[in-house]
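Q: May I have one protein plus its fold?
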Amino acid sequence: MLLTEMYENYKIYAEVYNAPGTLRYYKETINVLLKYFGNIDSSNITKNVVFKYIKYLMDSGLSNNTINKRIMFLKAMFKYNEIDSDFLKIKKLKEEFVTFGCVDPTTLKRVIKEILPQQNL
């Protein structure tokens, strides 16, 4: 099955279950996939081919989080279309999570008063 056929099949499902922003992201992602792979047959998308694609995305400066989302989308299309591939077993890249410490209640109240000065807290 060609990449565009896989997407058209998956898109019907996605339109039922996903938000408009997610659908826009999928459209952007399929365009990137088509630019990189062309309208490739699914049988030619192997683990090694996907690792080369991941390397291409890394070299493009994308974060691991974004790369994982793009690979997840590709996997979702394969699974929806019931196509098996060795690349489906590829693990996610390690993601960076931005964290910050807790804010004490007094500081939080001061910040809220600055943002919403008309409120009595």
